[in-house]
Amino acid sequence: MAMIAVDTLNLSFGEGAAANQVLHDVSFDVAEGEAFGLVGESGSGKTTVLRCLAGQYTHWSGRLTINGEALGRTLDKARCRKLQMVFQDPYGSLHPRHTVETALAEPLAIHGISDASRRIDAILIKVGLPTSFRYRYPHQLSGGQRQRVAIARALILEPRILLLDEPTSALDVSVQAEILNLLAELREREGLTYLLVTHDLGVVAHLCERVAVMQQGRIVDLVDSAGLAGAAPEHPYTRMLVEASRHYSREMAEHGAADLNAVATV
Amino acid sequence: MNQDKHLLQVEDLRVSFKSGGSLVDAVRGVSFNLGREKLAIVGESGSGKSTVGRALLRLHPQSARISATHMRFGDIDLLACPERAMQDIRGRRISMIMQDPKYSLNPVMRVGEQIAEAYLAHHKVSKREAEQRTLAMLEAVRIREPLRVARMYPHEVSGGMGQRIMIAMMLITEPEIVIADEPTSALDVSVRLQVLATLDDLVSQRGLGLIFISHDLNLVRSFCDRVLVMYAGRVVEAIAAADLDKAQHPYTQGLLAALPSVDQRRPRLPVLQRDQAWLTA
Amino acid sequence: MMNATMTMNAPKVANDNGAPQSSLQALRQNVAQGLRKLLRNPLSCAGLVVILALLLVAAAAPWVATHNPLTQDLYNTLKAPSAEHWFGTDEYGRDIFSRLVYGSRVTLYIISLVTIIVGPVGLAVGVVSGYFGGWVDTVFMRVTDIFVSFPGLVLALAFVAALGPGLDHAVIAIALTAWPPIARLARAETLSLRRADYIVAVQLQGASSLRILLRHVTPMCLSSVVVRLTMNMAGIILTAAGLGFLGLGAQPPIPEWGAMISAGRRYMLECWWLVAMPGAAIMLVSLAFNLFGDGMRDVLDPRSE
């Protein structure tokens, strides 16, 4: 049984003539303990899927299932124990006026979990931060450190699923490597299920086993990460993304434009 | 590499900023020469790469301390240049393309007017002629309906088109050097290629010198001719782009190794171990 | 070799020396930093000095004043400033300096009472409005619009006319007109941070709306609201003075600065000190609050962080 099952997810904003459909019949499954990637460019709808799962958008149609249980429209406390999210911008995902300790103690207080101090220490160690960081404010932390705190905050409620919205896009290359290693390690150790959204194919190839490629609100391709390398992927859009991630070339720029025009109508 | 006299000669550039009472060294002794080539300055945040770009055009506030053994643009000493003369150089002989057209284009002016204004600021011609040149420039950056696009406002154009408009605006005055500060970082991958192709064509057709500032090592190794790697305000490596695989400095090697790649999947990415010695090397 | 987990990214980030070891220390460091920033601005320092002087004078009024402010001395009416009466005497022979000193208490009473009412009410309305949107927002904002569409002094007049003149009624009247701008400000701030990632994160943790409003939204609005309140204080003083001038605020013989100006009008041309002294006091204190508020904005503005 799939840990996450998304079935014909549709979402539109606006009414009538101004209606803008951002998701068209999106369907995919994520097995337990799997890391699944959603890649696409801006406007592809990949982040929107994540936000539907996180309960931010409530007017979607279709079926969302977590571990066999269907998700309702509104966000309830039970869902918070099952899945959590790590956001893209480490500078915006922590409350500027709260210390690390406050940020980590809050979810525990909301769910009435005792023994907060010990749990906070434990989770900080787990994400590779010294426990003395408890008393720091976000502006006293570097980008990588903030992202670790964000991961700690997501994991302190011990969810089974982690939704990752471009977790390393705003980080330097060297810091990105550390965070990716941390995420891989945590998944192995805790048996977590990841749904990773990114535009960076390198990141998704590193962390995920399977990848869905989205374009303009639709899933256009679904491949194994291993299939991205070597033999060129079959779908032209996927192929374009892979080649662009490798390097720049004049020929590719010309062909790329042609390919794009070809798939734009898909 | 290039037999022409160097367009730009920088030796021992140092830039410091006042921050909360103390002096922070952002750039600590950077030297390089620029010919008619595509030179990349690569580094992570805080390395000082953008500071170098802005220092060349003297765009920093008065409180910043800029010094160098020399900073020469042809015959002109950019350090000693008075502000009036710098205004002649900025946008006319040395241009700068910035990262996000959302923020670098004036939101209340039509795009065509902005490009024409860039030209009129430095050349005394009639408005009609400026408009003609604007349309010609828009065609040069591969915008298909220049007349229609020229009448648009910045919020009506997509990211890639906005960046091409920025390029048009910065190249209409036919500068000799273009400084591009992360010009494609805010763009999608598919659009990025096309914008880079446009830039590539213009730079080679007109024989310009291009300084390409970026954090994306993978991108510059295939786009640029030479690469300068910066760390903590210094250049730690200056190497031809094609030779990046044979980089000498451990920082460059570490950066290259830490990039996750589609082709080379590893269970664990090698983490960059920073050496204190790099700060003083 | 540095520990890879404690990477220092750039010169502009966390200093490990002086890292706080407890939450109290963290708070203290923050406050100390804020104070240092405030004191670096000479104008806001000047404002702060005047405000502290005001507080001191009000607290130590019995010792600072040279005479009893209420004692009349009909043999010494309308005397010019002299060694005995530093600011001269009014038409009943009362010492003006002492009346100013005791009047500072009245001024402070008005300012603090109005701020205590207006701050929380404006914040609450603005934050709730901005966060929930929809019909809640519409209702609250229309109510705010109604209050805002009356000129402040006129509305205050109407209330005082209905309730009867007096210091407390004047305070209520001023408070009723001073809260809408605070509400609008809090609402604007809330709207801008409603979609921030840290708000979404805590929603995803299952926090109730009350918790989010109290612990996440309000602290972010607090800065601009505090600055606005501080700058408002000047306006409150002037409105109170205006009411006092019209005889609707503090009633005689209470030495309220505005009332003193009003009473001194009649003799203004010959006895300038009757009007100039209270007027100067009002101007000085209003200016001080404005300058201080400006300095506070530099310290508290979250955008600078």
UniProtKB/TrEMBL annotation, chain A:
It comes from the Bacteria. It is an enzyme of class 7 (translocase). Its main location: membrane. Gene3D superfamilies: P-loop containing nucleotide triphosphate hydrolases (3.40.50.300). GO terms for molecular function: ATP binding. It catalyses: glutathione(out) + ATP + H2O = glutathione(in) + ADP + phosphate + H(+). Belongs to the ABC transporter superfamily. Glutathione importer (TC 3.A.1.5.11) family. Part of the ABC transporter complex GsiABCD involved in glutathione import. Responsible for energy coupling to the transport system. This is Glutathione import ATP-binding protein GsiA. It comes from Uliginosibacterium sediminicola.
TrEMBL record, chain B:
The keyword Transmembrane does not apply. The keyword Transcription regulation does not apply. InterPro entries: AAA+_ATPase, ABC_Ni/Peptide_Import, ABC_transporter-like_ATP-bd, P-loop_NTPase. It is a peripheral membrane protein. It is found in: Cell inner membrane. Its main location: membrane. Keywords: ATP-binding, Cell membrane, Membrane, Nucleotide-binding, Transport. Pfam families: ABC_tran (PF00005). This is ABC transporter ATP-binding protein. SUPFAM superfamilies: P-loop containing nucleoside triphosphate hydrolases. Residues 8-257 form the ABC transporter domain. One of its GO terms (molecular function) is ATP binding. It comes from Uliginosibacterium sediminicola. Belongs to the ABC transporter superfamily. PANTHER family: DIPEPTIDE TRANSPORT ATP-BINDING PROTEIN DPPD, OLIGOPEPTIDE TRANSPORT ATP-BINDING PROTEIN APPD. It comes from the Bacteria.
